[in-house]
Amino acid sequence: MTIDLTVKLLAMELKISIDRLLSQFADIGINKISSDYVSQEEKNVLFTYINYNQQRMGVLSKLTLQRKVRSTLNVFGSGGKSKKVQVEVRKKRTYIQCNSNISHDIKQENIEKTDTNAIVDKKVDVLNDTDFSKNSCLQSKISRNSVSMVVNDMQDKYNQSNITLIKTKLSDNDVIKNFKSNQYKKVKNIVHDAAEKPIYTNITSQVSYDDVDTSITHTVGNKKKINTDRRVRVRQRIRLSRSRSNKANINLKNRKHKDSFFEMKYDEYDDHRLYVRGVKNRQRKPSVLTHAFKKPVNVVSRDVVIGEMITVSELANKMAVKSSQVIQVMIRLGTLATINQVIDQQMAQLVAEEMGHNVVLRHENDLESMVMNDRDVNVGSNVLLNHLEHRAPIVTIMGHVDHGKTSLLDYIRSSRLVDLEAGGITQRMGAYCVEIPNKGMITFIDTPGHAAFTNMRMRGVRITDIVVLVVAIDDGVMPQTVEAIEHVKCANIPMIVALNKIDKSIDVANVDRIRNELAQQGVVSEEWGGETQFVSISAKLGTGIDILLDAILLESEVLELKSVRSGMATGIVIESFLDKGRGPVAVILIREGTLRCGDIVLCGLEFGRVRAMHNEFGSNVDSAGPSVPVEVFGLSGIPFAGDVMSVVRNERKAREVALYRQGKFRAVKLEEKKKDKFKQALVDISSLENGSVVNFNVVLKADIQGSVEAIVDVLSRLSNSDVKINIVGSGVGGITETDVSLAIATRSILLGFNVRSDILARRIIELENVDVYCYSVIYDLIRDIKKLITGMLMPRHCKKNVAVAEVRNVFGSSKLGNIAGCMILEGVVRRRNKVRVLRKKIVVHEGEVESLRRFKDDVNEVRAGMECGIVIKNYNDIHSGDYIEIFEENVDNIGTICV
Fold it and tell me: Which 8-state DSSP code applies to residue 569?
């Protein structure tokens, strides 16, 4: 069953206009309007007529051929230099195949047109033989113009008659011949009447020949006659110029260059110029070739694409005008600018619109927005809002240093993180997932409590759902406690106060004192009529831990934490560092979606494909959902802590966005350096008045990005009016040869935090006597830097490395514990020496040698190239592949603290 279409829909289907379709219907004798329906029979008749009409036009089959020819052209420039120019010639040919019947019809039509032109030529010759005056040329052109118009009209009528013949399907050849002969007789009579028609001679001679000539049809006019008249006019002009040159010869005797005088004349047709030599050579010079391009009279409106910043010269090039014109327009708008001055997008838009161009604004982050919008995040969809799932709460533990934050987390996780931390304090952020039996999962984030790690605590507040503020009863409210309260208030996050160390003191008056101090900071307990839960706990004994976990789960139920598990993942970088064997590593907390191995991620200034993922225990995982922290491998570099991670579709576009962000970050850094230089100039001016300022240059290397950020912040705050601390370079990883070379070039000291130098760097340090200071506790670093900048650093104890041993194997002993089977690489190891254990260039323990054996015998020392067994006092966490540095503390040697 077929469905009838209207004329409008049929025109849309055939991709032609409605008027053209209606005219085709009228040609076949069917009268329609745009709203009428077309039956299947009418469509068949229409298609038959269209196909027959196309066959009459000869378009049966078409073949198009294209060809490209590439070549190289040597172009000689200034200074004798040449350059190569790539030339590409493109050719296109179209061939149409016609059948024998149509080719015969085309030939017949050409013969008929030739006969028509012959009749017109005869009439024009009759007109040319008549003797007219100076206006006769103009009159003959007008007559020929009218003849050509008549002939064209009759040819159009002839074509219309052919269509009528096709429509009525006349097949009788005699009738067709009679019809054609009658048509030609009519044409001959009309041409004869037009030629015999009198021409008015009152047209003035001032009529422009150019205007008349443009309306003549050259296919009908007599070209031979036109060329003859033209030669006559040129000869007359040459004779006229000769007479003038003879008269001017007398005045040209004293001229230095006689042959350089030319008289330039215009031909009556504006497209040629004739040059006639005035003195010697009187021959006619050939016509000068004219350009195909003519300067437009009206202003050309262009589409001008303007970025966020653009110079005046670039804007002028986009509008194809001179820079001076742009500057004039800006002056009229009330702004003074130079040719190389950078203007903003708004000013450039005003200038372009003032000059009559269309402005297209281009934002530099269009690609970034397109990439971020082209993500299957499944957020905002009404269908998936009903499929949101509950996620685990993210809890950040905050408080003052040494108030028991890590101890509380160790009891909950049944781990011993405190024993692994240098100095007994937390100096990095950690994220852990804990499965509470019969209660669900909770993600804990441990933050450092030292004053130097303010940025870490701030990031912990931004990514968390609930904050647990740990306050020790014996200390009370401390400065970092107040700082944590301020962060929580700014983020508007619910808080639970855990009063720790109740095993030391259960004095009620002491607890009330702490409640009062917290109330002064705006934290009022529920017992006192506030909204904050207070829980008394003991991280050492485990008292009140279950009550604290119940309070956390209750608060999470009130918040109704939900997230989408399907779709592309989004997360936040908690910490990042450089692993020697695996490259850049980022600890990422997933916020929504699911991150899988193989996903393409865009993380701040870096990008990459996820090669592997590890959980907090170091085990491989294939995917990670919301509220789950994982270590991600495969990024192009070390991202900054706090950067947002997003999964994207296209790796190439992710690379482009990362490069754009890096360029923008570099530009911001340069602007900050310019501002710092301006401030430094002001400081230098003031120092000339008050005295000289000492510059203290530092090259900093640390184990993680958060430590670098914290130490840079501390050093910047240690600067004063007398000493200026300049951070020449900073980074994550061990001290390398490049860092030492930078320190030598800038006369800086090297600061290492939880890192050590490699062998090549150590050799350069010893040869060049570079000062290197390595620390594991931030207290010691701040203390020594203060002494350095105040000129009070006089170290009495210098740690000097005397040997290095590599752990090849680990043996267990029931009496001594773990024994490290080592190969002494350099130096001499003696019993009771101080040692430091390095794992991937990071110090994990410092102690002393408790037992030194070679085979089964106790020995006092072992030299380089020999194997031995080393037992480190009170330390059994030794692994194969670790390095043991043996050092001595000297009192007399003053120089570097540690190498």
Answer: -
The answer to whether the CB of 432 falls within 8 A of the CB of 396 is: no
pLDDT of res. 632 = 92
Predicted pLDDT at 191 = 47
Question: Beta strand 842-854 with 857-858: parallel, antiparallel or unpaired?
Answer: antiparallel
Q: Select the CATH number that applies to the domain covering 798-890 from these four: 2.40.37.20, 2.102.10.10, 3.40.190.10, 2.40.30.10.
A: 2.40.30.10
The residue whose two tokens read 């009140």 is 544
Q: DSSP state, 794?
A: -
The pLDDT value given to residue 110? 52
pLDDT tens per residue, range 321-378: 999 999 999 999 888 888 888 888 889 999 999 988 998 887 766 667 777 776 666 5
Largest CA distance in the chain: 141
Task: Give the position of tokens 């262009």.
Answer: 302
Distance from chain centroid for Cα 169:
66
Question: Virtual CA dihedral for 672, 678, 682, 684, nearest 10 degrees?
Answer: 90
- Residue 862's DSSP bridge partners are 829
Relative to beta strand 629-635, strand 817-830 is: unpaired
Dist. CA 551–CA 535, nearest whole Å: 9
Q: Could you tell me which residues are beta bridge partners of residue 303?
A: 358
Phi and psi at 803, nearest 5°, equal -165, 160
Look at strands 466-472 and 495-500 and give their pairing.
parallel
pLDDT for residue 868: 92
- Write down the CATH number for the domain with range 366-389+565-692: 2.40.30.10
Segments making up each domain of the chain, as ranges: 1-97, 100-213, 223-277, 314-362, 366-389+565-692, 392-560, 693-789, 798-890
* Domain 392-560 CATH superfamily: P-loop containing nucleotide triphosphate hydrolases (3.40.50.300)
Does residue 437 sit in helix, strand or coil?
A: coil
Tell which phi-psi region holds residue 565, choosing left (phi > 0), alpha (psi between -120 and 50) or beta: alpha
Euclidean distance between CA atoms 126 and 659, whole angstroms: 80
The pLDDT of residue 725: 83
Query: What pLDDT, on a 0 to 100 scale, did the predictor assign at position 208?
Result: 38
Angle 146-149-154 from CA coordinates, rounded to 5°: 130
Amino acid at 666: R
* Domain at 693-789: CATH code: 3.40.50.10050
For 109-153, what is each residue's pLDDT tens digit? 555 554 544 444 444 443 344 443 334 443 444 344 444 444 445
CA–CA dist 20, 779 (Å, integer): 89
Residue 639 in 3-state DSSP?
A: coil
Query: Has this prediction a pTM greater than 0.70?
Result: no
Residue 850's Cβ-count burial label (10 Å; 0-12, 13-18, 19+) is middle
Alpha-carbon distances of 229 from 128, 218, 423, 884, rounded to whole Å = 11, 15, 111, 109
In which residue ranges of the chain is pLDDT below 50? 1, 59-60, 100, 102, 106, 114, 116-152, 154-155, 157-159, 161-173, 175-176, 191, 194-195, 197-220, 250, 252-283, 285-288, 379-383, 792-796, 892-899
Could you give the dihedral angle defined by the CA atoms of residues 452, 455, 461 and 464, in that order, rounded to the nearest 10 degrees?
-110
Pairing of strands 861-863, 749-753: unpaired
CA–chain centroid gap for 236, Å, is 70
* Domains 392-560 and 693-789 in one fold: yes
Instruction: Please enumerate in sequence order all residues whose Cβ is within 8 A of that of 476, keeping only pairs 6 or more positions apart, or say none.
Output: 513, 514, 517
Look-up of token digits 């069953």 = 1
Q: Facing residues of 90 across strands?
A: 68
